[in-house]
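User: Can you help me understand a structure? I only have the sequence.
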Amino acid sequence: MYEYINGPVAELTPTYAVLDAAGVGYYLNISLETYAALEGAQQAKLFVHYVVREDAQVLYGFATRAERELFRLLIGVSGVGGNTARTILSTYSPADLQNIITTGNAVLLKNVKGLGLKTAQKIIVELSGKLTGLEPGETLPGTAAAQTEEALAALTMLGFNKSAAEKALRTAVRTAPGATTEELVRLALKEL
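Assistant: Let's start by predicting it. Here is the structure, written out as tokens:
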């Protein structure tokens, strides 16, 4: 129903954020990964997953599409609810979680608070083949995750190698913190 919510950050805690979009405050449950990306930000764009239950309607917010997609894959596993998936994403970054699932490291995954070995093994078995093609959506320091993600997508669509584009974007972010997506692409192109 909702793709993303964009607006000023009215309130931010390690477990939730309130975004003011056109005068309406949206309460979004977030992971620590998203909290770290939003810390100190005045404005934010969070990708949303909307859950309707008998007793509640819940919004989950994510700094990147990749984190949201991992969340959706996790809640698709029987026995893993929204709060458990959020705890997993708070414990491990999307890249680390993908690595844990790909390598089948259930012992490391069960270190998540409230997650047992059987559930960890179930997550690995059910998601091991589903992670191909899912980008980690790395957040580069000093700029909004969405802008960086869009700039990286634009550079790879232009035919540049992903790792070279990421390196050029890091340089662009250091050169011009707070640059727009277009400015990031231009600066990165100069580096490539």
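Now, to help you interpret it: The first helix runs from residue 32 to 38. Residues 31 and 89 are 6 Å apart (CA to CA). Let me know which part you'd like to focus on.
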